[in-house]
Amino acid sequence: MPASEPDRVPGHRAARFPVVDPATGKTFDEAPDQQPDELDSVVDRARRAWHGWRADPAARTTALRVAADAVEAAGEDLARLLTREQGKPLTESYAEIARTAARLRYFADLAPRTRRITDGRPVDSEIRWRSLGPVAAIVPWNFPLQLAAAKFAPALAAGNTVILKPSPFTPLATRLLGSVLATVLPEDVLTVVTGREPLGARLASHPGIRHVTFTGSVPTGRTVAEAAAASLARVTLELGGNDAAVLLDDVEVDRIADRLFWAAFRNCGQVCMAVKRVYAPARLHAQVVEALAERARTVAVGPGLDPDTRLGPVNNAPQLARVEQITRRALADGARAAAGGHRPAGRGNFFAPTILTDVPPDSPVVTEEQFGPVLPVLPYRSLDEAVDAANGTGFGLGGSVWGTDLDRAEAVADRLECGTAWINHHAELSLAQPFAGVKDSGVGVAGGAWGLYGNLRPFVVHRPQEV
Predict the structure, then answer these.
(1) CA distances from 326 to 135, 195, 374, 408 (A)
(2) 238 has catalytic annotation
(3) Three-state DSSP class for 446?
(4) Which residue of the set 92, 238, 368, 385 is catalytic?
(5) Closest to 457 measured CA to CA, from 102, 11, 159, 254
(6) Could you tell me if 55 and 48 are in contact, meaning their C-beta atoms sit under 8 angstroms apart?
(7) Helix (H, G, I), strand (E, B) or coil at 408
(8) Which of 64, 282, 385, 461 has its CA 20 to 30 A from that of 189?
């Protein structure tokens, strides 16, 4: 598979680091711990591969379509390994593989448009598009393959080469994906590197990288931006979210409760654009809390490889500690757990699905991103109060409004300070739409044609109409 130099030297065994199964808390495999000084040769090979890859758009289209087929053919192996290292239910891993293949097909058929400018001068001006060069794609542990494809598919379609670094918590499925794609892509067009820090920081700051695309936390995103600034590389940052769901006073609670619950708890709440706060009218607040708590109490929690599991473990020990700490703080501040609120007995990184009520509005579980199976439900007395609260954090990734009067709900959604607003659903995206956050939730745009053009630069040619 594409890898760094030590993996290509016969007889050389690179340093390795353990990979933990979050369902058991035990190490089940290892991955190469590649070192920052190995990146020079990786980036150099990507730069040399770029010259051929950018030259033939038709060949790129064909290669990306074949790559999508290869991903689907390897779906079972990829899905099982993804569940083993990430923790999500196997059905969700299969869905992630499907979305990975779908992104490759979508961007394979997307091409930049040349544009001519007519402005009255005796000159024909034409805007063409050129690729950037080697792209660094740094991916988190919650959707390792799906988010990787969201970065490398548009970058490759635009004619760039890609160096892909997964989280050290989930390196194995990405390495397998890299080996699958290596069978259908030219050598060094897509390279997977794995390792612990400072590998990611060095990749972001490498002078041969022309675009850094990163998904992760706000603090790490700031660090990545600072590193990329050293070489003036372009950055696309998809950072944290603290999405609010605002329920209107005409909402039918029983009708929307399932959708609202899974909008918050899919992938054990480890979704950047999951619902992380619910604002309910005061007269409906108790009903909303109980409807969500009933689902939290009865949902099947367990290892992702168990076919009955609907909710898996938290991916890693540091994140589990964060979820536990932020929940304990809320309970200490006067919140009440209508469901969950604790770690269950037994092995693994499990945390009971938790619905919190009576939460102080300034509690960190409300103002920060908990990124786990914990959901505060807060009452409001006026709609202006709810909208102000929804907009009252430094985040601005997504938000949603729930009610039966769609025109009214849309008017409220238009007041939310976020990149995407949904009505009566949440966290559903089309491959064709832009995806971006405001405030601390991101810089740049991913998705659709915007994602393609984010990996290109304009090149203008002026030609006189007469000699």
Answers:
(1) 36, 29, 9, 34
(2) yes
(3) strand
(4) 238
(5) 159
(6) no
(7) helix
(8) 461
Closest to 156 (Cα-Cα) out of 241, 213, 91, 221: 213
Q: Two tokens at 240? A: 């944290």
- The tens digit of pLDDT for each residue in 334-392 reads 999 999 999 999 999 999 999 999 999 999 999 999 999 999 999 999 999 999 999 99
Residues contacting 35, CB < 8 A, separation 6+? 15, 195, 199
CATH of domain 244-423: 3.40.309.10
Cβ proximity of 141 and 170 under 8 Å: yes
Three-state DSSP state, 85: helix
Nearest one of 224, 458, 437, 220 to 318, comparing CA atoms: 220
Spans of the chain, pLDDT less than 50:
1-12
User: pLDDT tens digits, residue range 27-42?
Assistant: 999 999 999 999 999 9
Residues of the chain with CATH 3.40.605.10: 16-239+441-461
* Secondary structure, 3-state, 298-326: HCCECCCCCCCCCECCCCCHHHHHHHHHH
* Residue 227: its H or E element: helix 218-229
Domain with CATH 3.40.309.10 in the chain: 244-423
CATH of domain 16-239+441-461: 3.40.605.10
> Residue 308: which residues within 8 A CB-CB, separation 6 or more?
300, 302
Question: For 272, which DSSP code?
Answer: T
User: Residue 407, class by beta-carbon neighbours within 10 Å (0-12 exposed, 13-18 middle, 19+ buried)?
Assistant: exposed
Using DSSP, state whether 185 is helix, strand or coil.
coil
d(CA 132, CA 15): 32
Residues near 292 by beta carbon (within 8 Å), at least 6 away in sequence: 257, 260, 261, 264, 278, 338, 339, 355, 375, 377
Q: How many residues does the chain have?
A: 467
